[in-house]
UniProtKB/TrEMBL annotation:
SMART domains linked: FYVE (SM00064)
Basic and acidic residues composition bias: residue spans: 97-114
Record protein name field: FYVE-type domain-containing protein
Composition bias type Polar residues, residue spans: 69-81
Coiled coil: 191-250, 290-370, 414-441
Domain FYVE-type span(s) in chain numbering: 471-529
Keyword Zinc listed: yes
Region (Disordered): 55-115
GO biological process: endocytosis
Residue ranges with Low complexity bias: 82-94
Keywords, alphabetical: Coiled coil, Metal-binding, Zinc, Zinc-finger
Keyword Membrane tagged: no
GO terms assigned for molecular function: GTPase activator activity; zinc ion binding
Length: 545
């Protein structure tokens, strides 16, 4: 720009010299680049002629234009002015040489003939007019270039502000990316912690299942022992009844014989002594029989006491088992609440885990209630047995008519015991079925957790490799493992890049600024759409090969 202003000052000085009457040749070689504001080197050659020249008009210049030889010519255009053949080729190389050539031509023509000198003056004047016109064009171009420079400066300021804004946005995006990376690492840590807690929960559920199996075995053993004891008591009752029948038969026979016989006491003392000895013998036998019955009663009482002690021990064991189970359940509840608080992001998996744990809790509570009912039934049976023992103790002093009532009660008691045993067997069968169902649910839950771990490892591995799968590398669907054919085409998931069949890519997700629908797989749909249910909520996923 400074060189451009120097050129303008030089043009103004040349114009003033022309107005004073001095003939000046002003040559300007300008290659002005208007769009890019480039101002190349410009050259000014000023030749003063000693002879004064009067001003000429444009008509006089046009009359003498064809008569004089034109060594130097100036053609004015919008962006380019050129010299004649003698000076144009040498201006770009050395300006001093061009000035020297023009000076030599002036010296050769210093004393021309009068006619030739006038023609040269008219040519110089015409050239001077053209130089003035070129100067005015240059001034106009100067104004245009200044306005263009101002506009470009404004554009440069806008460009600098835009660049600053873009740098700020880039830094902001960089910080957001760093935050997302940190958040992703935290999510992976939470997933690892969830895996550990899941393994702990599985171990605790396994311990609970073992405890339930042990308790179930103990209950079966108790039932078998009670049934054996019931059979023994029944056998003892049968034996006592037989002995009673024998005694009653003997007494009845003796009574009938006494009634039928006449009471004839012997006449001699020896016969009376023999009769007395027989009576004493019968009395001793009856005492022995009564003592034997008393021993049986005492043995039954001892067995009753043993049964009561066993019942107390069983109740104490049940109370301790309930306390342990309740404490373990409380621990499980606290751990589950902690998992819920920490894993809001993985809400679907935690809800499934919670449902499974609640189902196990309900099963355990149901088992507790059923065990309570079984224990109450045992208590009722023991109470009935105690009543029977009391009744048996009173058999020795009861008349014969009461024995019939006892037999009826014995039949009713036997029927009640049979009904109780059948009910307990049905309950044991139902409990076994529920245990099998709970084991199947737990197996499904383990399979689901393994599938989730495999899916997480696959997602972690895809972050470190190219996700897009090529068609020639895959021969079967990644979801249903069905081989591709002409009817079953290969389709790419638009998020993970894996290859599936059309039926496995049933979900669509809107993406991009134009919200175009894109087909995605079940796993990517669960990751992208947070409000939807997990893909494994309706059925367990396919187990990995």
């Amino acid at each position: 720009m400074e060189r451009f202003f120097q050129q303008n000052d030089a043009q103004k000085a040349a114009t003033e010299e022309v107005n004073k009457g001095t003939s000046i040749l002003f040559y300007s070689i300008d290659k002005f680049c208007f769009g890019a504001q480039a101002f190349p080197n410009q050259m000014f050659v000023i030749l003063q002629v000693s002879s004064p020249v009067k001003p000429t008009t444009g008509s006089e210049v046009s009359q003498h234009r064809d008569q004089s030889p034109q060594r130097l010519s100036v053609s004015t255009k919008v962006n380019t002015r050129s010299l004649s053949a003698n000076s144009l080729s040498s201006l770009n190389g050395s300006p001093d040489k061009t000035v020297k050539q023009d000076t030599d031509s002036y010296n050769r023509n210093e004393h021309p003939e009068p006619a030739e000198g006038c023609d040269m003056c008219s040519n110089y004047e015409a050239q001077l007019v053209r130089a003035q016109q070129c100067s005015r064009d240059m001034e106009r171009q100067l104004g245009v270039s200044e306005r263009t420079c101002e506009r470009l400066r404004e554009d440069l300021g806008k460009e600098s502000t835009f660049r600053k804004e873009m740098e700020e946005r880039w830094s902001q995006k960089k910080e957001e990316h760093k935050a997302q990376v940190a958040k992703g690492s935290q999510v992976w840590l939470q997933v690892a912690e969830l895996k550990k807690q899941m393994l702990l929960a599985e171990n605790e559920m396994r311990d609970l299942r073992n405890a339930f199996q042990l308790l179930h075995g103990e209950v079966l053993e108790r039932l078998n022992s009670l049934s054996n004891q019931r059979e023994q008591v029944q056998q003892q009752l049968v034996r006592l009844q037989e002995e009673n029948d024998q005694l009653v038969g003997k007494h009845s026979v003796a009574a009938e014989t006494l009634q039928n016989e006449r009471i004839d006491f012997p006449d001699t003392v020896e016969e009376l002594q023999e009769l007395l000895l027989k009576c004493r013998d019968d009395l001793i036998r009856s005492k022995l029989a009564s003592e034997r019955l008393e021993e049986d009663v005492r043995t039954l009482q001892c067995e009753n006491q043993l049964l009561r002690a066993q019942m107390d021990a069983e109740q104490a064991g049940r109370v301790s088992m309930e306390d342990n189970l309740s404490s373990e359940l409380d621990n499980l509840k606290t751990e589950l609440h902690q998992v819920k608080r920490e894993c809001k992001v993985h809400q679907g998996s935690v809800e499934n885990l919670q449902l499974t744990v609640t189902a196990h809790q309900e099963t355990i509570s149901d088992l507790k209630s059923r065990l309570d009912t079984a224990l109450r039934a045992k208590v009722r049976v023991l109470a009935v047995l105690e009543g029977m023992l009391v009744m048996l103790e009173g058999v020795l002093v009861m008349p014969e008519g009461v024995l019939v009532v006892l037999e009826g009660m014995l039949v009713v008691l036997q029927k009640h015991l049979e009904d109780t045993v059948a009910e307990l067997r049905s309950r044991v069968a139902s409990l076994q079925q529920e245990l099998d169902n709970s084991e199947a649910v737990q197996k499904d839950f383990v399979r689901l957790s393994q599938s989730l771990q495999v899916q997480l490892e696959r997602i972690r591995d895809t972050d470190m490799e190219v996700r897009w799968q090529h068609d020639e590398d895959i021969d079967e669907c990644q979801g249903c493992h069905t081989s591709f054919s002409v009817a079953r085409r290969k389709q790419h998931c638009r998020h993970c890049g894996r290859i599936f069949c059309v039926s496995c890519l049933s979900h669509t997700v809107l993406s991009g600024p134009h919200q175009r629908p894109s087909r995605v797989c079940d796993v990517c749909h669960t990751l992208l759409v947070r409000d939807t249910a997990p893909y494994f909520s309706t059925e367990p996923p396919h187990t990995p090969d």
